[in-house]
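Table S7 (text form). Paired inputs.
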Amino acid sequence: MTRRVSRRELLRAIGGGAALLAVGAAAPERIGARETREIALLEGWNAATWCGPDTATGEALAGLPLRVVWGWDVAEQGWLHWASGAAGATLSELRHGQPLWFELSRAASWRQPAAGAFALPLELPVGWSFLGWAGLHQPVWKAFGEDPYGPVAEALRWNAEYQRWYDYRPGQSAQQLFAVLHPGDAVWVRTRVSGASWNSAVGVRPGELAARVVQGEATYYHPSLAGGPMFCPPHAPYNPQDPQLAAAVSWPCGTRLRLWRGERSVDVIVQDTGLLGVNHVDLSEAAFLRLGTLPEGRIQILIEVLAGPE
């Protein structure tokens, strides 16, 4: 089991080049007039990112003892495949910041040219995304945030030496083997709200909560949940008679929403989360009754974002 490290210890390690940075570290160097970056890869499975400019996959991976390569498409939320000499490859080009999951038959160094510009931010869906990091060494709390109720619920980084995943959860101390993002890391990130974005050199950023109206649906809490603590601070007990109570994953804690069904409306505050879909709000019985009847169970609504968290 790895120990957890303090911020002071971590920042001292970054400044002094301590062993904390050794696993997966990528040191830039210059060959002639061209800057390159070398990423250490081990035998077995590796999760790594292409940090160079957009390049044909075969050229970018040339010289690596590959067994299989998979690339994650963040926009389509699906896997792309490439194999040397194989027809029908769906991963024909590696774009800057492209995260990869691949197996090597032996250890190798992956030398990459440095890119002249970073990729544009990608909007992240609710749930898991496989993302590439092409920035400099960065403490995990800066890349993913430190608010336990922010857009990131957790992040996972693969350690090729131990062939296992290590996690970081905002609000908790970082694990020693996942305290810093290194150039070339690839990570799984789970977001709990829509609208957040990822920049391969900056990290996750919350979305803008502009006033807008979207289509959605509403349900109400099961009666058995009465009195249970809610997710958002101060973790008040669920009260079925509170007409302002709502749970959602598409907006962070404290967001104020106005829900419309025809001419009927109710103003609510996101105070809880749950296994909900995008633009799905779960209401107290009192709030649901402002829009419909309990036997309806699930209704179609319009959702207006009034204000973000205070």
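Next pair, protein 2 of 2.
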Amino acid sequence: MTSILKYTEEQYELVKNSRNVLFDFCATISPDDFVNQNTSFGRGGSIRNLLVHIANTYEYWIGNVVLKNDIIYAKYEENNNMSDVIKLFSQIDKFMNVFIGNIDSLDDIEYEIQNIKSTAVPLKLFTHVITHEYHHKGQILSLSRHLNYIPIDTDIMR
């Protein structure tokens, strides 16, 4: 039987590849459009803010909850271009590598949401952060269309 380690390593490589396609596309967005806030889209409604929100979710669930790091969350206004965002996600990748490297030996993770305590297996948290990223990636591409860009295909199967 193959360990969850092998599958999560392979899965996260696919996520990073797809993310890099998105990043290349976002690098073509004008600086004004990159930070332009549209109230129809949650989490600040700009491409920049959605990217930082994705990173914040990794920071919270994997960095803080699982790895017990005292992470200071990335701030929107400190990530004003794709170079900043790429640096931010390189930090995300570092603690994701630690998490994935230990996933087979991790016990259930305790967490609390709205004063309700619960536990989750590591695979559930891994699945949560990557599906969360894809949800907001779709919003970013949709937002780009509202800004008169032609979205690209960022699916894993392309």
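The two ends are 29 Å apart (CA to CA).
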